[in-house]
Design goal:
The protein is mostly helical. The chain contains 22 helices and two strands.
């Protein structure tokens, strides 16, 4: 009977070795779960100096710890896992996926620092051994393993505030996987880099580069992955953007110190120059000489929306307003991003209004902006302000006051489409309603009776409702 039972056990173990699959029931902080873990196909009874022998005893231990760990009976799983990990670490990926759960349980059970440190070192060593034997795995390769190792290091290490080892692993993980990186790894790379930057000013450039790298990946993932992942990627992206904006690393003077020499020595490097001007624009440093230099350099190589906008900003700063308008028009044509088209056209409208006092053309460009982005409340406010300042349309002082009706119409529309400008719009409304025609003003103007439609003349030429 014993012999029969042993034969049955051995048969089941060989079947298990070739067909075994399991799910790692530990998620990596918002990251994906390590799902199907298949057995290695290198089960053998021969060996050399570097490949451990996979014995029948080893297969028994794998079966025992796997069943116990699956049922969260980690105390029962520990012994056979230790044996399998020591004797045949190359036998099955389950040694590492289940092993992580078992060692994390060990850490929770530790009663003193020495015991805790011993378990922690075993956890880190386990990842190194997994890389040795399974680092070429197609689904969970070395970069993926390093990312999860870093997450566990950050979560479990003691007495290491900066966590520089984890930072290096995270960097290698993201560089290796790019868009296939775990979201938790992407997020943690920037957070860890930020912590180092706050403690060490020499890390500023690395922090900026890490942010830009992860931001680009998250932006791509938010547009190309399945909906749930895309939504999570966008949320992380927005959170990191907020942190970066408040970090101080985006200070224009600091950026100039980092990029001035780099731009000077990379004036033929199109990709680098594009990344610089795009970054400078996003952090609102587009009045920097470094930004202008990069924009002009890339524009000579190949005209892009970014380079044209950069040249436009430079021309504006030099009071070359017609050139600035031409460059922003060019930028509008070169980009496919409607929000950017709207921004460029609105910038032209501002130049025409502030610097050239050309209200009709300024309105034309403000309306262009609204065609690309109907929710651009600032464009409506600009039109309303120009209306309110157009007091020379009529000689009649009562009719002159009708311009405030159409002006307020624009302010009301602005806050309807764009809540972010509501405060400014309300202030303007409160200012100009005081200048509406009074009852006495319209007593001898029957065409201005409340509720009637009235068209304001001159360059404005818009209908409104008398009130």
């Amino acid at each position: 009977m014993k012999t029969r039972n042993l034969v049955i056990l051995l048969i089941s173990l060989f079947v298990f070795t070739n067909c075994f699959a399991q799910k790692d029931n530990k998620k990596t902080k918002k990251g994906k779960t390590e799902t199907t873990v298949e057995a290695t196909n290198t089960v053998t009874t021969t060996t050399d100096d570097t490949t451990p022998v996979i014995t029948e005893e080893c297969l028994v231990n794998i079966s025992l710890f796997n069943e116990s760990a699956k049922n969260k009976q980690y105390a029962d799983a520990l012994g056979p896992w230790n044996a399998a990990y020591k004797d045949c670490p190359n036998a099955n990926k389950a040694i590492y996926s289940r092993g992580r759960d078992i060692i994390l349980w060990e850490l929770d059970q530790a009663k003193d620092d020495a015991t805790y440190q011993k378990a922690f070192d075993k956890l880190m060593g386990m990842y190194d051994k997994r890389i040795k034997y399974f680092g070429n795995d197609e689904r969970y390769p070395t970069p993926w393993i390093l990312g999860i190792k870093a997450l566990d290091y950050i979560a479990k290490v003691k007495n290491d505030n900066l966590k520089r080892p984890a930072y290096e692993w995270l960097l290698k993980s993201v560089d290796g996987l790019s868009d296939k990186s775990e979201l938790a790894v992407l997020n943690q790379l920037v957070l860890t880099s930020f912590s180092i930057y706050k403690a060490d000013a020499t890390h500023t450039e690395k922090y900026i580069n890490d942010y830009l790298k992860v931001n680009a990946i998250l932006d791509n993932m938010s547009k190309t992955t399945e909906q749930k992942t895309a939504e999570q990627a966008l949320l992380i992206k927005q959170s990191l953007e907020t942190q970066f904006a408040q970090s101080g690393a985006a200070d224009c003077k600091t950026l100039d110190g980092i990029y001035k020499d780099k731009v000077a020595t990379n004036k033929t490097n199109k990709d680098f120059l594009n990344s610089v001007i795009s970054f400078y624009r996003r952090v609102r440093c587009n009045e920097s000489e470094v930004y202008f230099t990069a924009a002009v350099a890339i524009h000579k190589i190949e005209s892009t929306a970014e380079s044209a906008a950069g040249c436009g900003a430079m021309s504006y700063k030099k009071n070359e307003f017609n050139n600035a308008i031409a460059f922003y028009d060019e930028a509008t044509k070169l980009t496919t991003d409607k929000s950017l088209k709207a921004d460029y056209q609105y910038t032209i409208a501002q130049i025409l209004y502030k610097e050239m006092n050309n209200y009709p053309r300024a309105r034309e460009y403000a309306r262009n902006s609204l065609e690309f982005n109907p929710n651009n409340g600032s464009a409506y406010i600009l039109i309303g302000i120009m209306y309110a300042k157009s007091r020379n349309i009529y000689d009649d002082p009562v009719l002159t006051k009708t311009i405030y009706w159409v002006a307020v119409d624009k302010f009301v529309k602005a806050k309807q489409v764009d809540p972010s400008v509501a405060d400014d719009a309300n202030k303007l409304i409160n200012t100009y309603v005081e200048h509406f025609p009074s009852k006495e003003d319209i007593f001898f103007q029957p065409q201005l009776q409340a509720g009637q439609s009235f068209t304001v003349g001159g360059w404005i030429g818009e209908s409104t409702i008398c009130r």
